[in-house]
Amino acid sequence: MEDEVLVRLVLDGNKHAYAALAVRYAPRIHAICLARVSRLVDAEELAQETLYRGLRDLSTLNNAERFGPWLCSIARNVCCNWVRSRQHAPELFTDCESNGHAGQVPVLDRATEEAEMAYDMELLRAGLCALPEIYREVIRLFYSDRLTYKEMAALLGVSPATVNARLSEARERLRRWLINGQ
Fold it and tell me: Model confidence over 108-167: pLDDT tens digits?
């Protein structure tokens, strides 16, 4: 069913129709939140908050066909507000990842293949955390949500060429991070 039809059903009182929209957009919302806050547990809470606000504020949506981009803008605002509220909180050592500080990558026992894989994944994770938000966002949407450039462009409100440029720059920055360790 099209977004527009589901939105109209929800606005007509069928709250169960929102579940279909939530299932459809939850991975994208989660990817946006994870790109902005980096910590999985925080991203999950912010995605839930976004979906709640989407339902609560659905009557303010002017164009039902634009539900997806509208919901994504709510996710970005929820995340920005959350980050802003945490700027004055004391930083804990365990919060380094959420604040974009990659910190030191732990040295693991590289004697086994499993340890090497864990080390590589931690290095990649640190590199992702070090990327500016606009690059983390396209990386997550492309690789986690498997969106096309056109779909990402519509969600982010930019052109497909801009998505391509951001994704190319993100890949290059990650490549340099992996080669240089920073």
Answer: 444 455 666 666 667 777 788 888 988 988 988 888 888 889 999 998 889 999 999 999
Q: How far apart are CA 82 and CA 151, in angstroms?
A: 26
Say whether pLDDT at 179 is over 60.
Answer: yes
Phi, psi dihedrals of residue 13, rounded to the nearest 5°: 110, -5
Distance CA 152, CA 32 (A): 11
The two most distant CA atoms of the chain are separated, in Å, by 62
What is the CATH T-level fold of the domain 102-182, as seen in this structure?
Answer: Arc Repressor Mutant, subunit A (1.10.10)
CB 41 within 8 A of CB 131: no
Q: What is the pLDDT of residues 21-63, one digit of tens each?
A: 999 999 889 888 888 887 788 888 999 999 999 999 999 999 9
Instruction: Judge residue 68's burial from the number of C-beta atoms within 10 Å of its C-beta, 0-12 exposed, 13-18 middle, 19 or more buried.
Output: middle
159: Cα separation from own chain's centroid: 19
The letter for the amino acid at 133 is E
Between CA 6 and CA 151 the distance in angstroms is 20
For the domain made up of 1-93, give the CATH fold. Answer: Rna Polymerase Sigma Factor; Chain: A (1.10.1740)
Q: Which two tokens stand for residue 146?
A: 């498997």
Q: What residue ranges do the domains of the chain occupy?
A: 1-93, 102-182
pTM above 0.85, yes or no: no
